[in-house]
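Hey team,

Filing this mostly as a record. A colleague (T.K.) asked me to run one chain through the structure pipeline before their review meeting, and I want the input and output archived in the tracker in case anyone asks later how it was produced. No errors, nothing strange. Just documentation.

Input sequence:
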Amino acid sequence: MPSWAKDPSIGNRMINARMETVAEKPAYKKAFAVRRCLLPADGYFEWYPTSQTNAKGKPVKQPYFIRPADGGVLAMAGLYEIWRDQTRADDDPDRFRWTCTVLTTRAEDSLGHIHDRMPLMVERDRWGDWLDPRVGGELSLLVPAAPGSLEAYPVAALVSNVRNNGPELVEPLPLEDALS
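Output structure:
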């Protein structure tokens, strides 16, 4: 959520920032220059439309969990902002909200059939440069995941409900169950 935003609901539309425009878009430009972060994750979810439709005629989407093939951790490129809620008193501990966004790029690897975008990764040897505000926002520090470094598998639709939380959300489904 940009620091200048009047309405916090704008943040709902800003969960991802496109690499292609992040350096120019007013909502991200300043954060890209000096407020970069790493977002560690075991993986991330994407939804793939199946050939099935629901009662409303919309395609049923199958969630996939995408993770490092070697079982490691992802370091996704992110930006952060600190937003001040002008409706709260100066002494209110909840007057500031820390928010972040994930930088994305085109998915041109074997996972591109699931979703056309994917998070940008920061390789371990570039973490310091990415986090250092004295190093200008360098897109050259960011790379898509190396081909073959990520794997994807279908998971239960439980992941589509934010009330669900647990290891069952990343348990693989047999592919034939996912497509039925």
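Quick notes for T.K.: The first strand starts at residue 16 and ends at 18. The helical segments are 29-34, 127-131, 175-178.
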